[in-house]
Design brief:
Blueprint lengths: L1 H4 L4 E5 L15 E10 L5 E2 L6 E4 L27 H9 L4 E4 L7 E3 L24 E3 L1 H14 L2 E6 L6 E2 L5 E2 L5 H12 L6 E4 L14 H18 L8 E8 L2 H9 L7 E6 L3 E2 L5 H5 L2 H6 L1 H13 L5 E7 L2 E2 L16 H7 E5 L1 E3 L6 E8 L5 E7 L4 E8 L8 E3 L6 E2 L4 E9 L9 E3 L4
Parallel strand pairs: 1-20, 1-24, 2-21, 4-5, 5-8, 6-7, 8-11, 11-12, 12-13, 13-15, 14-16
Antiparallel strand pairs: 2-18, 3-17, 9-10, 17-19, 19-20, 21-22, 23-24, 24-25
Membrane topology: Peripheral membrane protein
Protein name: Heparanase-like protein 3
GO molecular function: beta-glucuronidase activity
Length: about 450
């Protein structure tokens, strides 16, 4: 299609000479150049309009890792729902898909209209599973959360307690069937109040070897069928019903194979988690973040899970339900700083849902992504230079290597020509510090 060959809007997001293995950015000591090939004739993949998503966890302020207590007032139970910055941030990503869940979701009891609200919740106790006692979701807090989500236009996925009714055996496995009664009470109350839930997810990180404990694939499949039955029953008469998601754990091929085989029609989304940087205590987190082989390595998980789904009879699709990079709350001034950043708002506004084939035969330190633009004709390109010692001069071609049609991308600002319009967005760290919590757009706050 000729209209895709002529680029009417091209956005160039630059991390030029910004990433290094040091704490600050040095002047590039060498340069290289090459051609970025973008095939705009056909999409090679598609993504949801709400590709950018977030999780709100249950961890209380007492949750500490490696001497840092980072959670503060970020829990479902204590988050300030009147915070204007939070409200406007969620609105800016509308529709933002928000998953409510995490490790402690499998220790949460939901208040019902018949039960009393306990006075304590999630007390720190090293003898308890996950290091905390049971927690409780008061009905009043569930009401507040849903009012907030309705106000912001968020798309909500709620993670249910999948350990209810089970016992932990001597091998550390959770055995027995899931007791769904408390979860069903929450779902019925939610429907009664008219709250919109996009999906109900069963459990958190209980697949394979699990985290803290585990549930066998066959039993998990049976429990997922029970959840599907509850959703179908409670939402009877609703034209659109919430999705059922599971297992929300780390990919284990044998476990997932059995689980998917035994739930061919019982769930709509197979969720898995990614923490490919290892623990937050790792001393080489920045080196991993800037290592192309580490970034590429996770692709095998995607391929393996997709292959399982294609070979099965399930209509379910795969989602990354949670991805924090480094587990155990990350690392201060790394996973909450520029080096770990994702230009999420620009991505949401500029990148369309059609993914284009993109290749750069030069240095592997240049990461390149191309999509059809979101609200205009043309192509949006994201370029990330992981090497502070090398300046990369890039030419962009929308044709095959044998028929080059170049757009020069060596300028530092947007430019207009008779045929092409280009806009550029440059993102850098304040003072060139990879550990900075301030990101500059075009050199400005």
């Amino acid at each position: 299609m000729r209209s895709l060959v002529i680029i009417s809007l091209l956005c160039y997001w630059v991390y030029m000479a910004t990433h290094s293995h040091k704490s600050s950015i040095s002047v590039a000591s060498q340069s290289t150049e090459g051609t970025l090939f973008v095939n705009g004739t056909a999409a090679i993949g598609f993504m949801d309009d709400d590709f950018v998503c977030a999780t709100i966890d249950w961890w209380p302020p007492q949750k500490c890792d490696y001497g840092t207590c980072s959670w503060g007032s970020a829990s479902l139970l204590n988050l300030d729902l009147d915070n204007a910055i939070l409200l406007n941030a969620i609105k800016a990503f509308s529709p933002l898909k928000i998953r409510l869940g995490g490790t402690l979701q499998d220790k949460v009891i939901y208040q019902t209209e018949e039960s009393q609200q306990p006075s304590t919740s999630f007390l720190k106790d090293g003898s308890e599973l996950f290091g905390f006692t049971q927690g409780y979701l008061p009905m009043s807090r569930w009401d507040q959360l849903n009012i907030f989500f309705n106000k912001t236009g968020a798309v909500v996925i709620f993670g249910l307690n999948a350990l209810r009714g089970r016992t932990i055996n001597s091998q550390g496995a959770a055995v027995g069937a899931w007791n769904s009664s408390n979860a069903e009470s929450l779902i019925r109350y939610t429907v009664k109040r008219g709250y919109r839930i996009h999906g109900w997810e069963l459990g958190n990180e209980l697949s394979g070897n699990g985290v803290g404990t585990r549930v066998a694939a066959g039993q998990y499949a049976s429990d997922t069928k029970s959840l599907q039955s509850i959703v179908q029953n409670v939402y009877a008469g609703f034209e659109a019903k919430p999705q059922v998601l599971a297992p929300g754990g780390f990919f284990d091929e044998n476990w997932f194979t059995e689980f998917i085989h035994k739930t061919p029609q019982s769930l709509q989304v197979v969720t898995h988690h990614i923490y490919n940087l290892g623990p937050g205590s790792s001393g080489d987190l920045i080196q991993k973040i800037l290592d192309p082989s580490v970034l590429d390595g996770i692709s095998q998980t995607f391929k393996s899970l997709q292959s399982l789904l294609e070979k099965s009879n399930t209509p379910a699709v795969a989602w990354v339900g949670e991805s924090g990079g480094a587990y155990n709350s990350g690392h201060n001034l790394v996973t909450n700083a520029f080096v770990f950043s994702f230009c999420a708002l620009l991505w949401h506004r500029l990148m369309g849902n059609k993914v284009l084939s993109t290749s750069f035969p030069g240095t592997k330190k240049l990461r390149a992504y191309a999509h059809c633009s979101k609200k205009t004709q043309g192509i949006t390109v994201l370029l990330i230079n992981l090497d502070s010692n090398t300046k990369v001069q890039v030419r962009v071609s929308t044709e095959s290597p044998g028929r080059l049609s170049y757009l020069n991308f060596q300028g530092l600002r947007g430019s207009k020509g008779s045929q092409n319009v280009r806009e550029e967005y440059h993102l850098t760290a304040k003072d060139g510090d990879l550990h900075s919590k301030v990101m500059l757009l075009m050199g400005k706050h």
